[in-house]
Amino acid sequence: MSGKTIVSLLFVIFFWILNAMSQTVQTEIKSPEEFFGFQPGADRMLLDYESLVGYLQHLAENSPRVKMIEIGESPMGKKMYLVFFSLEENISNLEHLKQINKELAINTDLTEDLQKKYCEEGKVFIMATLSMHSTEVGPSQAAPLIAYKLTTSNDADLLKYMKDVVYMMVPNSNPDGMDMIVNHYMQSKNTKYEGGNYPKVYHKYVGHDNNRDYVTLSQSDTKAVARIYNTEWYPQVLIDKHQMGSTGPRYFVPPMTDPIAENVDEKIWNWSWIFGSNMAKDMAADSLAGVSQHSMFDDYWPGSTETGIWKNVIAMLTECASAQLAKPVYIEKNELVAGGSGLADYKKSINMPMLWQGGWWRLSDIVEYEISSTFSLIKTGSFHKKDILLNRNILAKEAVEKGKTLAPAYYIFPAQQHDKSELAALLGLLNEHGVAVYKTSEQFIYNGKIIESGDYVVPLAQPYRAFIKEVLEKQKYPEMHYTKDGELMRPYDITSWSLPLHQGVSAYSIDEIQTVLETKLKQVNFPLQEVTKIPELCKNLVFSVNNNESFKVAFSALKEGIKVLRVTNNFTLAGNRLQTGDFILQVTDKNSEQLHKITDSLAVSPVYISEEFSENVKELSLPKIALVETAFNDMDAGWTRFILDSYCIPFTVLKPAEIESADLGNYDAIVFPDNDKTELLEGKYKSRGGSVSIPAYDPQYIKGMGKKGLQNLINFENEGGTIISWGASTELFLGVQTLEKPAKEKSGKEKTEAEKEEFELPVSDISSGIKSKGLFAPGTLFNVDLKENHPLTLGMEKTARVFSKGNPVFSTFIPYFDTDRRVIATYSEENVVVSGFAQNSELLEGKSAMVWARKGKGNFVFYGFYPQFRASTSGTYKLLFNALLLIK
């Protein structure tokens, strides 16, 4: 018998044994239909998160092909899981395979022999993140069917692929949102509002924006998912599963369209072609029409789950057309459209060669497309196993070599910063991303610049060099056009995300490796915290207004009933310089335990003062704050809630419909995040052309405040309240307004007559005129000059960097009667764009970006930018916090 025949015989025996084992296991495993009582993907039926997790646990408990581990918690406390599927030999050997992944991903000193050994022994780990956008239900609903097939199939080809591949499933990236959407759908089922929109953000805070958080890592569910590929399992491939609108292509697969990130190695992009083209080919073989690629979605911006691209992961997304959740939709052929880069017309083309012709579109269709694309990924991973594993280590080695030979070589973060707490936060974030941070042990001079002992250094000779460079440099958009000198390819999302610039942290780069500097570096251990031990004779703790952390301390203390003072004028006490806006917590025998809890784990220690004093300070009160949040998946309000909660600032959520009858006198400040005036007033959408449309919500959830609600707000401010507003919501308060003072009793049954007064704040929005002249800012960081020594700018430097989309832009004029205004921030006359892209940015120079105004006794604070954009602009948080403290 020849050697080849023996090998073939052994191969047959091997799979016979596997088949026998599978049949034994299969008798203990329930199919999805048996477990749930219906087939996932069935019309008008949805699994909730607990049911989905329960089934996956059932598989893990009954099959050696499945392992399930806990990876963290959602913001609302639901446990999150990662589920592994492969052959038993791989599942039982996961820890060894995990170590191989790590070695290939970050060990850049591997010898050729070790590299070869790991590529032989290792497996391709394919990580799939499902349905993070909770209205995109299909991927998570398909999960049990994919899991069942991987667990029980006896197909020889699939078993061969699973020998080479470990499929890692995050069954839902947003467990809280999954339950919100499923429960809302099931409650509306059999009503005329079935399939309508959910009247809140489908997450504790950020809704659809959870896929915009993978640089900032502000949310616990985002952190849990990112840890898998950043620092724990190091998969070589990542696929993020999404859905899109109903009237375009049925399915999008990679590669992406232009522009692409210039810091990412070309090998990543080439692999995305291979995986995407195989998906398109395999799905066509399964008779799945309407698959498009190289269109619609770019890979320029790093905020999504595919941030793994910048860390040498072959990271991709897919997008499937949507039904109305689980409700089928019928789509006429003439309703099918295409648009955007790579797919201008709904016609047969190289990017969509097999058209879908319309008809019924169901959740079961979405599930079918998800299953087909998933098994194509696994097959491709198996076919190219050794090349994919080798590629991971080659990319890491090449990244380190680039860090040694290409500029920049280092980013330097001086330890002395205007806001030391933000420096600590930024460095801690880099550590979460798997970036090594170092500290200098001695002074070093480079080109006349002194690097002090204790300064922080981030070398770029690291495996994640592409990510380090991407998030630490300022962004310059690669202007590309559809044709030469033709229309600009507009970015899919924002164009600036530089961490130092967004967080108000000073940093600079050194272009060449410095051998002497390398000898003075010691790797930093995290977290960066200073031990706060209050001296025995200390009577006062002083927290600098320059630090965002100090506001958190002050609000925490006020919540606990601890007396908080704020410095009203610069002065010196016991050799310590106190500046206007600093916070002082007085130490007593009664509050020392509470103070220790508040000051535990601070990044910046306070100044300890044993002397008593009473001048140049005022006592603060805890402001009573209302935050206005609409029912329209109000992500900007959600991000604002997150910031307020993070800084221990208590608030009440106020719905627009509640404003008309609410006693606004119960509040000191009312915050209006970015929301359209028509949504706030009427609960409807207004298009750019001015037409009003009815949103797809149950009407009970979307009522506006109406004219009476607006009048209540005007009275609130006139009597001394503070209204804080940014973005589109500022339009509510600009232009001609009416103040109506109700009639009051004089004596007996007599009443004064109601007073009615028309007025106009001395502020207007001129952004429409500027945009008509060609301003385009898709999400850009701008320089503004701040009014110094103003209550709203305490703790800020003279120049700030603000995140804006180019509107509103304010103009002021001389006021009449009891109105007033002050320009707080002005777009700089030179170098107005700090990071990102803006066409005709000179139109902003010298224009007003932030204005304080008044009618009567109160305050309006208007921002032409986002002071808290997606929790990524901490450099301007103080402009919001100071506004909250503008109380009498």
Strand content: 15-25%
What's the Cα radius of gyration? 29 Å
Largest beta-sheet characterization: 10 strands, mixed
The termini sit apart by 97 Å
Total strand segments: 42
Percent in helix: 25-40%
Give the secondary structure arrangement, pairings included:
Blueprint (H helix, E strand, L loop, with lengths): L2 H24 L5 H5 L12 H14 L3 E8 L5 E7 L2 H4 L2 H13 L5 H10 L2 E7 L7 H15 L3 H9 E6 L4 H14 L31 H13 L4 E8 L6 E3 L3 E4 L5 H20 L5 E3 L4 E2 L14 E8 L7 E3 L27 E3 L1 H21 L1 H21 L4 E4 L6 H13 L5 E3 L3 E3 L2 E3 L4 E4 L5 H8 L26 H5 L4 E3 L4 H4 L2 E3 L16 E4 L4 H12 L4 E4 L3 E3 L2 E3 L4 E4 L5 H8 L7 E3 L7 E3 L5 E4 L6 H12 L5 E3 L1 H4 L9 E4 L4 H6 L2 E2 L5 E2 L12 H13 L3 E5 L9 E6 L13 E6 L2 E3 L1 H6 L7 E7 L12 E6 L5 E3 L6 E9 L5 E3 L12 E8 L3 E5 L13 H8 L4
Parallel strand pairs: 3-4, 3-5, 5-10, 6-8, 7-9, 27-28, 27-29, 29-32, 32-42
Antiparallel strand pairs: 1-2, 2-4, 6-10, 11-12, 13-17, 13-18, 14-17, 14-19, 15-16, 20-24, 20-25, 21-24, 21-26, 22-23, 30-31, 33-34, 35-38, 36-37, 36-39, 36-40, 39-41, 41-42
Helix pairs in contact: 3-7, 5-13, 6-13, 7-12, 8-12, 11-12
